[in-house]
């Protein structure tokens, strides 16, 4: 088994938990409230604005034996630069306060996720950052390709309110093709273990973020019982 497939197998439980969150299931069915969409964009802003700084930090700490990976990081930085501004524009386009979001604090799961990734690079194995890439780009592909258009229609919003989500469908699909090739070039077992562990951590924190988003569909009695058990 190549490492990309090994990574998917090793994180299958965490990925299933994420896509089992009610608000994600509802989003994939096009059932999202305006409040929920704005809340999602706000949290996306709070982690996307760290993508380039995290990649820069990662690239600086990669060892010489992974020079080929540093080159890929440079290309990724160039493609990702400024995407947080797309999100702020989307927030404004759907009637939100972009300035307020830019000056706000993230929810705890996103704050912890970002802090964990910086610490991983500084004190652990910087290759682990690619575990984050696996989670965030895989999730955005699913939301963009399966949900963006339906959500736009159900909320009656203009296309300008979906520049981030819609663009990341095709963009992240291209990224994942490259990502697969990069991960399959990893040979060191410690590097592989770092990617798997980081992916598991990010999956869990990202799942908690989605659990905290406002829902369009009323919470059922069974869900309340499940949450309190």
Explain what this protein looks like in three dimensions:
This protein is mainly α and 229 residues long. The protein is built from 14 helices and no strands. Helix 4 packs antiparallel against helix 7, helix 5 runs parallel beside helix 9 and helix 10 packs across helix 12.
Name its key features.
about 0% strand, globular, mainly alpha, 14 helices
Order of helices and strands: HHHHHHHHHHHHHH
Low-pLDDT sequence parts = 219-229
| Mean pLDDT value | 90
Radius of gyration equals 18 Å
| End-to-end Cα distance | 38 Å
What's the main sheet like?
Answer: none
Number of helices: 14
The structure class reads mainly alpha
Strand content: under 5%
Tally of DSSP β-strands: 0
Helix content: over 70%
Oligomer: single chain
Q: What shape does the CA trace take?
A: globular
Task: Write the topology of this structure.
Layout: H1 3-10, H2 12-19, H3 22-28, H4 34-48, H5 51-61, H6 67-80, H7 83-93, H8 98-102, H9 108-123, H10 129-146, H11 148-155, H12 163-185, H13 189-211, H14 221-228
Provide a compact summary of the structure.
With 229 residues, the protein is mainly α. The protein contains 14 helices and no strands. The model is unreliable at 219-229 (pLDDT under 50).
């Amino acid at each position: 088994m190549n490492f990309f497939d090994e990574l998917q197998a090793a994180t299958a439980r965490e990925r299933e938990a994420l896509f089992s969150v009610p608000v994600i299931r509802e989003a994939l069915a096009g059932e999202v409230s305006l409040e929920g969409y704005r809340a999602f964009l706000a949290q996306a802003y709070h982690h996307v604005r760290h993508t380039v700084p995290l990649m820069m930090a990662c690239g600086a700490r990669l060892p010489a034996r992974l020079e080929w990976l540093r080159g890929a990081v440079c290309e990724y930085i160039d493609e990702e630069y400024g995407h947080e501004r797309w999100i702020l524009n989307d927030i404004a386009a759907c009637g939100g306060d972009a300035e307020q979001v830019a000056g706000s604090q993230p929810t705890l799961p996103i704050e912890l996720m970002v802090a964990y990734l910086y610490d991983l690079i500084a004190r652990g194995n910087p290759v682990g950052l690619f575990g984050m890439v696996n989670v965030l780009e895989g999730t955005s592909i699913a939301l963009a390709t399966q949900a963006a258009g339906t959500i736009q229609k159900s909320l009656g919003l203009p296309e300008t309110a979906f520049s981030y989500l819609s663009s990341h469908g095709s963009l992240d699909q291209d990224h994942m093709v490259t990502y697969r090739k990069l991960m399959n070039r990893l040979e060191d077992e410690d590097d592989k273990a770092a990617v798997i562990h980081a992916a598991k951590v990010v999956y869990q924190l990202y799942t908690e973020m989605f659990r905290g988003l406002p829902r369009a569909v009323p919470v059922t009695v069974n869900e309340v019982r499940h949450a309190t058990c």
